Structure formats: structure tokens, C-alpha cells
Amino acid sequence: MHPASLPAPARLAALTAMLALLPLAAAGDFLPAIVYDFGGKFDRSFNQSASEGAERFKKETGIAFREFEITNAAQREQVMTQFARRGVAIIVAVGFTQASAVEKVAKEFPAVKFTIIDGTVDLPNVQSVNFREQESSFLCGMLAALASKTGRVGFVGGMDIPLIRKFALGYRAGAQYVNPGIEVFENMTGTTPAAWGDPTKGAELARSQFGRGADVIFHAAGATGIGVMQAARDEGRFSIGCDSNQNYLHPGSVLTSAVKRVDVAVYRAFMDAKNGTWQAGPLFLGLAENGVDWALDEHNRPLVTPEMEQRVNQARADIISGKVKVPEYRAP
Amino acid sequence: METYTLIVLLLAATLRVATPLLLAALAGMFSERSGVIDLGLEGKMLGAAFAAAAVSAVTGSAWAGLAAGVLTSVALALLIGFACITHRGNQVVAAMAVNIMVAGLGPSLALAWFHLGGQTPQLDAPGQRFVEIVWPWAERARETPFPGLLYAELLSGHSLVVYLAAALVPAGAWVLYRTRFGLRLRAVGENPAAVDTAGISVNGLRYQAVLISGMLCGVAGTYLSTAASSGFVRDMTAGKGYLALAALIFGKWRPYPTLGACLLFAFTDALATRLQGVALPLVGVIPVQFILALPYVLTVLLLAGFVGKAVAPKAIGVPYAKEQ
Fold this sequence. Notes:
The complex is a heterodimer of chains A (332) and B (324). Chain A is 41% helix and 20% strand. Chain A is α/β, with parallel strands linked by helices. Chain A has two domains: 153 residues, Response regulator (Rossmann fold, 3-Layer(aba) Sandwich); 148 residues, Response regulator (Rossmann fold). Chain A starts with 7 loop residues before the first helix and ends in an 11-residue tail after the last helix. The interface between A and B is large, with 38 and 37 residues.
């Protein structure tokens, strides 16, 4: 948002915040900071969700926060060091690619709290937030199986890494929970980071699965998934979105989205740090913690029948209560 | 029966994947035949993909997008030309500079204009994309497997650009081998001094070649962002420019063999896409990593064993100076 579009007091606040980039924070002031990953805070996905969590914290507590959108990899370490040096209480780093920078800076500033989202750094002043993606994938797998008429559903992953295998395994388990005989096609786009940004390949993978009879495809492939969803719409089949709620992209064709509440993670980290309940170490957010979920809104409402909704919500409650166990992928 | 359907779908996918490769390879053919190395294919395509998606998103017209894509690519081509032809700079360095510049500039401009994390908006409205053209009776033909399915899947149901690329192969061959311009173009890539002695401008010819290359790359990039997918994302060419250059060398700088090379690359790519997770008779399911490496392995094998010697135009990469 451009500063000029804000109301006057907010504009003043924005200006002071900008000026305050120089000397900072009298001791005792609580000042949180957040470092976004590539894509920036308006990427309609991961980073945007993170920024919404930070904004919610600001709105509820009136405490301003620092933020930075990196534009090249070298900036991560620089900006974290700067924040730490200027007396920031907690730094939230969004995305697993920031792990090495967090590790380095956290060692240098043991008094500063760090929270890394979607990654793991094993240090006494780092909290590693990870999501139980398999749980939301499980629910999406159920919906796919319930919506499929051919008894065949598909999965398109981005880069072939354990995180994406986690999605695939949960999805397969969910689909088989509804229909044990269902066929699940699994494709990975590639083995390099380029696999996150190749929508043409994504569309081709989707078409190949459609050709083999799939009629619902779940993508966990970042921008590659845009191609998957486009192909599904072009062929009149269903797709399932990932990370943020993507139902609005192609209303009528996107069955649901496996949402990852990065905003919840950021909000929790800020709030806990402020209240003194922040703890280092691993933290897992699943359905029970509202960390992941399936998305139902006006865009996919007509596609989800009451029976489907009821069955999925039943399974959701069963997973939370522990009655249904979702298999978790472990790297071999 | 099912195998037959799969093969037809595989061939249809091959055509779609081959289209941007073929356009870029033909672009490279004109440029390299005139003696200018065309490493900038990647950057020109990416620039065109961005411009086409951005303009199509704003104006709502895929044709305006195409015009913007071609103009952008031509501008980049002329920039390389200015550095390499007029100022006799190193062709590889100039082209790589453009590739790197575009890779950064596209997402940066997209971020500044659209605030979508370096992407352009989704092209959703009718008219914003080059959609698939369904030929008459294609739906009814689908009911009879042979030759109906071939007609419905293989001939019908591609976007305009696919047909354009197919038509450009004979057209390119005709220009290169049957016209005066083509003769001079080939000559300037082999022996520019002789062309100069005949009173024809070497630089003028090379500029024309680079211009043609820019236009074709523009179409290729536009295809990527407005036909094959629906919008621009960071690095969406994903190495297709370099692959096209490999296809050109593979095809020995000739139109029809280059077409064959592009189809082969596209076929292995489409095959890799479809082999993932499929249990094959005797061998079972092949690991993903092997499948993904397959196109490259095949390329190395073919280049090493079957193609024979690829002889480049003699004057390629050498800037021409009248007096030395």
C-alpha cells in the first residue's frame, strides 16, 4: 500500500516507522520484526498470509512491527543482523530458504528470539514452526475422492522434497479413506527449485493425468500449480489449491484449497513473545491448532454437497481427537 | 485401445511442448546463419512472455499482448545487435547480459506494476489468451477411435500459435534456400568478406537476421505466457531457449532437421511427464529422478552417437570489420 493512501494518523505512523529505521527502541520497548521471502508481501500466497498475521497483531495490540521484503538472497543475513543489532525482540523469518541465515544470525545474537516458519533450526533461541500439511491434505484427498466420478484422482507436486511427499502421502491416505480402491496418480515437476515456477510443465502434467482418467487434481507446486489449475478449468475438471485459499482463482473448477495458516503462526509468535510465553524448539501446527485447514467459501460452495461437507468435517474432528491417524512422511 | 489413446495424447502433448522450442530454434537459425550467435533466445523469450502477459492483462486482448511481446523481443534483439554488430562486441557476453537483465527486470516490473509477488495477474477473461481452436466435427470424430481420435486430439484443439509454428518451418526453409535474401544470409554467415565485395552490406543483412530472430522469439514467448499458461511467472522459460539452441545445433542449422530435433526433445519431455509413477511391464515403476533425467540422457546419447558432425556457419561469432 502506498503511504499516501493511508489515513493521516496512519501515514504519520508509517513515516515515523520509516524514520525510526536509524537509531531504535529504547531498552524495554517490545519490537517485533518479520522478514518475508522472495515473492514479497503481496504474493497472494505464503508471504501475504504472513503479513496478514503481523497486521492482525498490530491491530489488536497497537504495537508496530518492522518488516522487510528481500529481493536477493544475500539480504537475508544483512537485514536480520541489522534488526538484531537494533534491539528487536523477535524476528520471524518466513520460508524454509531462510534457515541458513537464521542459523548464522541466531548464533551471533543469542538474546534475540527467532522464529522460522516452515523450516527447522536447532538452536536454543530459535523456534521452528512447521505445519502438519498431511492433515489438510488428508481432508482434500477425501473431498477429491468424494467428488471424483472416475475413481481416479491426481496429485502434482513441485520440487521433489520431503515436504511435498508429506502432502502427497496425506492426500493419498485421505482419498483411500473414502474409497479404498481409488487410483491416485502422483507426479513431481522436478528436482530443482525451478520446479516451483513452471506453469507450462504443470499444465502438461495435469493434462497427462486427465488423459489417464483423473478428474480431480491437487497441486502442491507453488506457481507451477497455476498451470495445473488452468488446465483443470480448460478441460472442465476439478483442481485443489494449496497454501493460501485459491478457491477464487477459477470459481466452479477449484474444489477446495489446502490452506496453511501462516498468519496464525506469525500472530502466535509475536503474541507469545510479547506475553513471555514464547518457547524455543519445534512447534507443530495442525488442524487442532488451526494451523492448517480446508477452505470452504462462496466460490466453491456449489461444488461441495452437504454430505461431502459433513463427512469431511467428521473426519476433521476425528483427526483432532486422535481417532483417525494420518500417516506422516519420514525422509528415508 | 487404452494404449492407443495414450499414444495419441502423448503425440498431441509433443506438439504443444515442441511449439515454443521450434519457434525459438527457427529464430536462432536465422540469426546464426548470418553469423551472430543467438544465446539471447532465452532472454528474448522471457521478455516477450512478460510483456505479452502484462499487456494482455491490462488491455484484455491477446493480440495486443502478442504485439507487445514481439516488440519487446525485437527491442532486445536490436540491443544485442547494436552491441555485437555495430560495435563488434562479444556476442556471447552481450546475449548473456540480456538474459540476466530480463530475468531480473521481468519480475521486478511485475512486482512494481501488479503487486502480485513478481507475477502478472491471471489471464482469465475471454480474449486474453490464445485458446485452443477446435476444428469442425472434432467432438463427433472423437467417437470413432481411428482416425477420429487422431483428428480430434492431434490435428484439432491446439492454439493458433501451434499451427503458425508448423507453417513457419516450410516458410523458413523457402526463405533460406529459395530466395535471394536467403542466399545472401547464408553467404554472410560463411564468408562475409565475399558478400561485402559484392557490394552488399554485411551489417545490414545481420541486422535483418537479428530482427527476424527477435520477431520469432516474441511469438514463442507470447505462446508461453498467453497460450500454454495464463500469465507470467518468474523464470517461466525454464531453459527452453538453451534447449532450442541445442536443437538447432542438433539439426545442423537446417529447418527440417531442426524441426525433427525439437519434436524429439518435446517427445522425450512429454514421455517423461507421462512415465512418472506408471508401472511398466517387466521393470515396474521407474524412479522419478531417472524419468526426469531421461530427456537429457537421450540428448547426450543421440548427440554423441547418431548425429555425426555438426558444422557451424564458418563466420559465426566473428564480428565483421571492413578493414583489418
